[in-house]
Design a protein that fits this description.
Layout: H1 8-21, H2 37-48, E1 57-63, H3 70-83, E2 86-93, H4 103-112, E3 114-115, H5 130-141, H6 156-170, H7 174-184, H8 191-197, H9 208-221, E4 226-233, H10 243-259, E5 268-274, H11 277-281, H12 286-295, E6 308-310, H13 318-337, H14 343-358, H15 367-384, H16 391-417
Parallel strand pairs: 1-5, 1-6, 2-4, 4-5
Antiparallel strand pairs: 2-3
Helix pairs in contact: 1-13, 1-15, 2-3, 4-9, 6-7, 10-12, 13-14, 13-15, 14-15, 14-16, 15-16
Length: about 425
């Protein structure tokens, strides 16, 4: 598939996002991705175009250092999902709003973040998220008797809620539609509304898996290829605060892995990204051993059935990785500012930046993330004054970025605590 020319406005949005904190932007990431093409190719050919089409499902564990590209990788998976007509839901797991031991809260975030396929041309438009947008889009585009196309899902309450939502849309009853949508989003309804819509349960811990399976079945019935669920443990630790909560979260994860492959999750693929797999698997007892057995195999080009995708082991050396990354980011920067950097000065500055960045490999923060933030600053300096950035100057830039990231993280932790 030939890549389209990068839009200058999108290029500037990419540079701004990366230059601030090194976090990946929502769109445009494929223009500076390095080293994961083989993983993505296998995921697309083996799963998105392969077994998921047979109403099967799969689970992959994504591992990598803090700042090492996990969110970036999930966004790339989401993009190829959209390209293959998959609905997606990217969910950031966190101790306060969405811990994995509370699967009913995870379900809420999944339905809130549902996204139908979009492309780079739509990056400036407000994104319409959620199951309400999914339903509106389906009713708008479907032909014939829509209600007759809604089959029975595992949860009868979910089935009845979808039917009620569609009925209210067709009759232009926006208030009624909003009432039912609140339940589909995981909120409870007054008793009289439950009776009216034939909803017999509330979304809680006891039925969260059933609701999640019903959602997968619903998306599959709409004519999409399936549903990709992208769970991102974005913090350094896990979204679990106590040992008891961790055991419950691990049991949820074990059950999710076991559910994959059966007919109750047609066309679904789950990706769970975490900075360190030891956070999941260190410990003793049945739930730890059961999960270790399920997550031990490594995903590679020759073993696509493996579970673990290690982003620290992509087959590209650190120096080669940064060289290619720096070159791609330079191209994005030049498009963003319609400014051609002096090639000789740019390349020498990049070489010095790379050598300096490699000295930071032993830090807790990924040297890749430090490099991205620092190199964007370098490009701005070169745009202002075409003079080579020497290694000592590059080191000082990186040190300042490390301090910035440390201060930012400290502020985020303190805001969580209070």
């Amino acid at each position: 598939m030939q890549r389209k020319t990068l839009n200058p406005n999108l290029a500037k949005a990419v540079i701004h996002k990366l230059g601030s904190f090194g976090t990946p932007p929502e769109f445009g990431i494929e223009y500076f991705s390095v080293g994961v093409e083989n993983y993505l190719r296998v995921i697309e050919e083996e799963y998105l175009k392969g077994i998921l089409k047979f109403n099967l499902s799969s689970f992959k564990l994504i591992t990598g250092n803090y700042g090492g590209g996990k969110t970036h990788f999930l966004y790339l998976v989401r993009n190829i999902g959209w390209r293959n007509n998959y609905v997606t839901s990217y969910v950031t797991l966190s101790p306060t709003e969405c811990p994995f031991d509370r699967l009913e809260l995870v379900y809420k975030q999944v339905v809130l973040n549902l996204r139908i396929p979009v492309n780079d041309d739509q990056w400036e438009e407000p994104w319409n998220l959620g199951i309400d947008h999914l339903l509106r889009n389906w009713v708008k585009s479907a032909e014939g008797n829509i209600l007759s196309k809604i089959r029975s899902f595992e949860s009868s309450s979910f089935t009845n809620a979808v039917k009620a939502a569609v009925t209210n849309l067709l009759s232009e009853d926006e208030d009624g539609f909003d009432e039912v949508i609140q339940w589909l989003k995981g909120d409870d309804l007054p008793r009289e509304l439950k009776l009216r819509y034939r909803i017999s349960e509330r979304v809680d811990r006891s039925n969260a898996f059933r609701m999640l399976r019903s959602l997968v079945q619903f998306v599959s019935s709409l004519g999409y290829s399936g549903l990709l669920l992208l769970f991102d443990e974005a913090e350094r630790g896990m979204s679990i605060s106590s040992a008891r909560d961790k055991r419950r979260a691990l049991d949820n994860l074990r059950q999710l892995v076991d559910e994959c492959g059966n007919a109750r999750l047609p066309g679904a693929m789950f990706f769970y990204a975490i900075p360190d797999e030891n956070l999941l698997l260190e410990g003793s007892g049945g739930v730890y051993e059961a999960l270790k057995q399920r997550l031990r195999s490594s995903f590679t080009r020759i073993n696509p059935m493996g579970v673990k995708i290690n982003l620290e082991d992509i087959g590209v050396g650190a120096r080669d990785f940064l060289t290619e990354l720096g070159s791609k980011l330079a191209t994005v920067f030049e498009i963003a500012y319609d400014h051609r950097l002096n090639t000789e000065i740019r390349d020498q500055s990049l070489k010095n930046m790379i050598e300096a960045a490699l000295e930071f490999q032993t830090l807790d923060v990924s040297y890749r993330r430090i490099f991205v933030i620092g190199v964007i600053e370098i490009f701005h300096r070169l745009k202002d004054k075409a003079a080579v950035i020497h290694r000592d100057e590059a080191r000082e830039i990186f040190r300042s970025k490390v301090r910035l990231l440390a201060d930012t993280e400290k502020a985020e932790v303190e805001s969580e605590e209070f």
